[in-house]
Amino acid sequence: MWYVPIEVAVTLYGDTRPPADDRPTVKVTAVSWPGDEPETAAAAAPDAGPRRRPRRLRVLLAVGSAAVVLGAVAGAGAYAYAGDVPRGTTVLGAELGGRSRAEAVRELRAELTRSGALNAPLRVVVGEKNVELKPADVGLAVDVEATVDAAAKASAHPVSRLVGSRAVAPVVTVDAARLDAALHRAAGDQTREWTVPAIIFTGTTPKPVHPKPGLALDRERTAQVVRVGWLSGRPVTVPLVERAPATTSEEVDRLVAELARPAVAAPVTLRTPKGSVTIPPAAIARSLRFAADDAGRLTPRIDVKRLRTSLDSRLDALEVEPRDARMTIVDGKPKAVEGHPGQQLDAAALSRDLLAVLPRTADRTVTGQLKETQPKLTTEKLASLGIKERVSRFTTHFTGGLSSPRSQNIAQIAKEVDGAVVLPGETFSLNGHTGERGYAQGYRDAPVILDGKLVPGVGGGTSQFTTTLFNATYYAGLEDVEHKPHSYWFSRYPPVIESTIFWPSLDFKFRNNTPHGVLIDTSYTSSSVTVSIWSTKIYDSVKTEYGPRRDITKPKTIHLTPGPSCIPSNGIDGFTQDAFRVIKKDGKVVKREKFSWRYLAEPRYVCGPAQS
């Protein structure tokens, strides 16, 4: 900064010298600019008195000069600091300098619209392949407000705001997941998954699975490259990165030698306050798991649930399963029955202690701690669920009495489901609730449909119970999650609104989409099975409206070889039909749900050759 020293001399009427002028005068004694030499005394001395300007004039000149300088500085400052964005600032060619934030936002939006840059296809090179992506498909966009904020902060220095220019990069956003998915499809077979390290047991023999690196896109790196290069007008090259699991082949071999092999070399003794149990090598092999995380890091652990299954009934003398509170119907009203706590091995401690002794060749004994286990469902919880009234009931009929294997299967599954409580928001799976329905579970051979034919199969008849349960939940207004009608229509079932089941491939599921609990109450006689749903009534009514049958086809006759596996049938017409579930609440239809199914024409099966 330059300084102008000013000396002010004021002449008064009482001065002893005769004044040439009685106004005040200003004397400028020195003006120093960068690089100038200071004025010498000899140059300033001659005739100084008579040639001096009037003092008042000198004051006015100096004040005027100062005002000019200050005015220039103020003007320059006003120019430099006009608007929120520094002058000379551009974004994608749009001049935003000197504008307010709101003006800059409008100008940048207008420029992006004029240029069409936001809709231009993004050209990406992935390995050896080229692909064009629509920006909207991968969430590419310019955050205009954030870009203007960045432009406003481009430079706060006064001189920088006054002179020069600067280009500010736009703030670009992208949906990294959608971009990654699109580029994975484009990359095709250029990428490969890494081989996850593992140790698996064949019987009691551990087998190592050695890791291999993979070639893949790096999601975050890809997103950054695309954000930077999108609006450059040039193709963006996305690198394929080789990634290897954290656990190496050497570490896998070490785990086999130091843990997996010695683990199954001998049994382990489990001691508890209630007695001891021997854990054989086969049970150890089934429960010792080597799991790899997302980074491919292999970690051994004991799966106590698998261990319990492997030990089967050997833990029965040590553990007591907790029993949930349950509901039963007494005198036409639901009543809660208290459950009880159990005693089970501390799973976390058992897993830790067992894993610690498995590498040893001697002293293979662990002490198991039994702890009280509370039931998941208590009477207090049941009382709060609002299970107070029957909201639906459905009955189907069968023949043969309870002495027939098919009827016994219906009764067996009804007993297993009776009393089940489904909490609000939970999904009930019939397969999940009963588990496998085999001979060991009390089921018998009865006719089932397999490959379009009626043949003997374990659990035949359980589809009738499934249809009964499906209809009970259907008329309760509960959400249908999964069901599959039969291939052929049987007159004992309502058309379309029916369901088959087969372990483990076909299931029936419904979701309790109400704020109340749901109790499934089942009962049976020698000729019928009934399912009732108890909860809190929500809807006025749930009814079915049927459309007409169409595309009717007639059965053909098929002759089969006589024998125990041949089950004759009369044949049934095939057809397509729609059914509409109409749900009313407060006198209005709140939901109209369409169900459709195409029934095949069931052939007329004859056990014997065709008559000539």
UniProtKB/TrEMBL annotation:
It comes from the Bacteria. The chain crosses the membrane at residues 59-82. The keyword Phosphoprotein does not apply. Residues 248-365 form the YoaR-like putative peptidoglycan binding domain. InterPro entries: Glycopeptide_resist_protein, Vancomycin_resist_VanW, YoaR-like_PG-bd. Keywords: Membrane, Transmembrane, Transmembrane helix. This is Vancomycin resistance protein YoaR.
